[in-house]
Design goal:
Shape: globular
Largest sheet: 6 strands, mixed
Bound molecules: acetoacetyl-coenzyme A
Radius of gyration: 19 Å
Number of strands: 10
Order of helices and strands: EEHEEHHEEHEEHHEHEHHHH
Number of helices: 11
Strand order of the largest sheet: 1-2-3-5-7-10
Structural class: alpha/beta
Oligomer: single chain
Distance between the termini: 26 Å
Helix content: 40-55%
């Protein structure tokens, strides 16, 4: 496969594309060259018909310690605004149709916390260290943190965390509903993410993409419009081969052989 400098890509399980952030000298701080590679890797897996789901992880020490402070420190307003700084990666896992599971171990701070929250499912280990410490640097979260953290854990808690910059543990993330599951060790966390991704990749890719799309719509639409949107997509799936294949296999008590069409 393609080789990258700041990430590692692999296919450790059937149908699963794994991306590991790999900039160990800077605790996976997110800077432009890394984000360009991450973008390219997501897009490549999304296009690859043998892949059905993705896992995004870092090291045991750091998922990502935030946007690169050294890269940002000399930016002016004109540059940040003029180049729409962070716009190109603030929706990253949402620009691909296949689901992305984040497996978070170690530090997930600032942009790292935001990147984890952009993913479709978040798994973490108990000792993961989350936070939005931007206020300490004289800025605010810039990749969706103020919106996604608030949606996930409620206004008062999110406000307290964003205003104080205090970190919170993986166990907290799970208790507050930010993480879907929490694990004792980093290995268990990554294994479980791969296992869930393999399960998802074993279904019709068409149905899986539609599931992701309709659940994500719930974040933007009211319930009534959201349900209407869901119904349109639901109806549309009766035009897929996989709908016939899935239902016939059930009736014949066989395993479905998906065509992903
Ligand atoms: N940007 C650039 N470099 C970073 C970095 C970051 N966000 N986080 C860590 N590093 C670098 C350190 O500078 C250090 O490099 P050197 O060895 O060259 O000095 C190396 O990574 C190791 O870090 P530490 O020595 O600090 O490791 P530690 O174990 O003592 O502490 C830490 C770990 C608590 C995560 C600490 O590194 C830290 O506080 N990092 C910054 C966290 C932060 O503020 N993140 C938010 C950034 S702003 C943002 O993300 C904006 C946004 O919303 C998009």
């Amino acid at each position: 496969g393609k080789s990258y400098e700041y990430i590692k890509v692999s296919t450790p399980r059937t149908g699963v594309g794994m991306i590991e952030l790999h900039r160990p000298k800077a605790l996976n701080a997110l800077f432009t060259p890394l984000m360009l590679e991450l973008n390219a890797a997501f897009k490549a897996f999304d296009k690859d018909p043998s892949i059905g789901a993705m896992v995004l992880t870092g090291s045991h020490k750091a998922f990502a310690a935030g946007a690169d402070i050294k890269e940002m420190s000399t930016k002016t307003f004109a540059e940040a605004y003029g180049d729409d700084f962070i716009e190109s990666w603030s929706e990253l896992p949402n620009t691909v149709k296949k689901p992305v599971i984040s497996a978070v171990n170690g530090h997930a701070l600032g942009g790292g916390c935001e990147l984890a929250m952009m993913c479709d499912i978040l798994y973490c280990s108990e000792k993961a260290n989350f936070g939005q410490p931007e206020v300490k640097l004289g800025i605010i979260p810039g990749a969706g943190g103020s919106q996604r953290l608030t949606r996930a854990i409620g206004k008062s808690k999110a406000m307290e965390l964003i205003l104080t910059g205090k970190t919170f543990s993986g166990q907290n993330a799970y208790d507050w509903g930010l993480a879907a599951r929490v694990f004792e060790t980093a290995e268990q966390c990554v294994d479980a993410a791969l296992e869930t991704a393999e399960t998802i990749a074993g279904y019709s890719h068409i149905a899986v993409k539609a599931c992701k799309e309709v659940v994500n719509k719930s974040q933007d639409l009211g319930v009534r419009e959201g349900v209407e949107f869901e119904r349109r997509v639901f109806h549309g799936l009766f035009g897929s081969e996989d709908q016939t294949i899935g239902m016939t296999a059930f009736a014949e008590k066989k395993k479905a052989q998906w065509t992903h069409r």
